[in-house]
Design a protein that fits this description.
With 349 residues, the chain is α/β, with parallel strands linked by helices. It is built from 14 helices and twelve strands. The protein has helices at residues 13-18, 20-25, 41-51, 69-82, 96-99, 110-125, 174-183, 197-209, 233-253, 261-283, 287-292, 296-301, 308-320, 335-348; strands spanning 2-6, 30-33, 56-59, 62-63, 87-92, 132-133, 138-139, 167-170, 186-188, 220-229, 304-306, 325-330. α4 (69-82) links the parallel β4 (62-63) and β5 (87-92). α9 (233-253) packs across α10 (261-283). The longest helix has 23 residues, at 261-283. 42% of the residues are buried. The mean pLDDT is 96.
Length: 349
């Protein structure tokens, strides 16, 4: 099992990037750069490609609404070129709050749109002329869709390093998870709970896998988690409190009632009743009570926190459920502790 890490730069991107080579030296395999309504991820990924030598770099994620498929393909090919074949294109649907609120683009039919994006990207990387007639994209754009009639099928001028850049889909809902298993090299679930993964994702993964091209190889599962290896009960409790706050925000407050993907996921994991309580408390402004109402089984189950022996058991549980990469946010209170956590997880994995 591989170890990845999302690049956290709440204070400074340059500071975070400056220590990345140290994580690389202790065996970190993958670094993932997010893009929400922050600085763009692409410029930062290019910078990281120049600063590292073995790390795989990935976008986590670029949404499929704010960039055209051809631009996503060009971007991925460019990052794969400057990293000498170390880039993974992570894409996803994001949500209407960002897509419509920040980009001003209608949030419609994300699954169908994503399917077309994948097909067009892979056409571009094969250097075939882009001629595509789908529900969401018409290449070239025809007059009846607002085109001038002067467009022509064009192929990418530069030869990509690889004819197929690996793609990762961030997905939680059954349709999107099935799409990941059908079309993508990798799938990224958030707050992954190994013991509940079969109930939450098994049917969708099986449906998608039944349609999967064998040439894609086995689906890689890149599971987001948080970690702290410690024998200090107080440090352990502080880390678990952070997980509680994180889960309460997502399960309780990320989206309106009835439109919260994370709340739905907690239910599929088997915590539907508790999720109702958490959401009710959170939306009424009682955030601390919402965090306290989360079951300990869930909080510990989605994280890797505690003494080394306990963390080793959790790493084994993730692996047993099919996870191929742990995408770990280390929770140590100083750089040395965070670095040691990644080094230790590399040994355990």
């Amino acid at each position: 099992m591989r170890i990845g890490m999302p690049l956290s730069y709440s204070s400074s991107f340059m500071e975070a990037a400056s220590v990345l080579v140290e994580y690389e030296s202790v065996g970190l395999d993958l670094v993932v750069v997010a893009e929400v309504y922050t600085f763009d991820a692409v410029s930062q990924l290019g910078f990281l490609a120049a600063r590292t030598t073995t790390l795989e770099i990935a976008s986590g994620i670029l949404n499929v609404f704010s960039r055209t498929p051809a631009l996503l393909a060009m971007t991925a090919a460019g990052l794969d070129h400057v990293s000498q074949g170390r880039f993974m294109l992570g894409i996803g649907a994001s949500g209407p709050q960002v897509v419509e609120g920040f980009h001003g683009v209608p949030y419609k039919e994300p699954v169908a749109r994503t399917r077309e994006v994948v097909e067009i990207c892979r056409m571009a990387w094969r250097q075939v002329p882009l001629e595509f007639h789908g529900r969401h994209f018409q290449l070239p754009l025809e007059p009846d869709r607002g085109g001038s009639g002067m467009g022509k099928p064009l192929k990418m001028i530069n030869k990509p390093v690889r004819p197929r850049v690996p793609m990762m889909l961030a997905a939680l809902g059954p349709k999107n998870v099935a799409l990941a298993a059908e079309l993508f090299e990798a799938w990224e679930p958030v707050f992954y709970y190994p013991e509940g993964s079969k109930a939450a994702f098994g049917e969708a993964l099986a449906a998608g896998t039944s349609r999967r091209d064998p040439g894609l190889g086995p689906l890689q599962v890149i599971a987001d988690t948080h970690a702290l290896i410690t024998d200090d009960p107080q440090a352990e409790e502080r880390a678990l409190r952070r997980i509680r706050d994180f889960l309460a925000l997502y399960v309780g407050g990320m989206g309106a009632k009835g439109r919260n993907f994370y709340f739905d996921l907690a239910g599929r994991y088997g915590f539907a009743r508790q999720a109702e309580v958490v959401q009710g408390l959170y939306l009424s402004g009682r955030k601390a009570e919402a965090a306290a109402a989360l079951p300990d089984e869930f909080v510990r189950g989605v994280s890797l926190i505690g003494p080394r022996a306990r963390v080793a058991e959790r790493v084994a549980a993730f692996a047993e459920s099919g996870v191929s990469t742990l995408n770990v946010t280390p929770l140590g209170e100083d750089h040395r502790t965070r670095l040691q956590t990644i080094a230790s997880l590399k040994e355990l994995a």
